[in-house]
Amino acid sequence: MKLPARIGTLGATLLALIGTGTQAQAGTVAADEAPQAWIVYAQRVSQQFQIALAGDSVPAQRFSAWVDERASARLDAARTATDPQAGTATDTHADSELADPPTFRVRVWLDRAGKVTRVEPEDIDDDQADADLRSLLLAQAVGASPPRGMKQPVVVRLAPGAEL
Predict the structure, then answer these.
(1) Residue 125 class from Cβ within 10 Å (0-12 exposed, 13-18 middle, 19+ buried)?
(2) In the prediction, which pLDDT does 7 show?
(3) Interatomic CA distance for residues 46 and 65, integer angstroms
(4) What is the pTM of this model?
């Protein structure tokens, strides 16, 4: 089964590289301050996620459907908030932005072999979607060790249609 074109272009973009430990802010390294090797590696992680999320597996299909439903709900809520009696014209540009699937931040830890060992998605308010995303991402192996000294977790933003 082929995914809708919008979800088929699901990309994961580097958001930031976060330090180790329980205090995420303490060791934060912004993407523009990270060594080039870290950025290249994080982009490799992102590409693996893109492949997994655009796949034909049952969890990928369910997650895709959930993302589409969430985008539709956002658009419907925005349209409902507009006062139809005021005669306000609908802003089609705003509609198209609201119809875009939402983005999600995900914190990812990788072992020395480049296998995803831990995933912490943010802002996913559905147990099944959370479980599907976790199972998809935990099954990923980047195929290379993280660069020496690279801070973890790596934080990526999953965003449909994002350019890597």
Answers:
(1) exposed
(2) 35
(3) 21
(4) 0.72
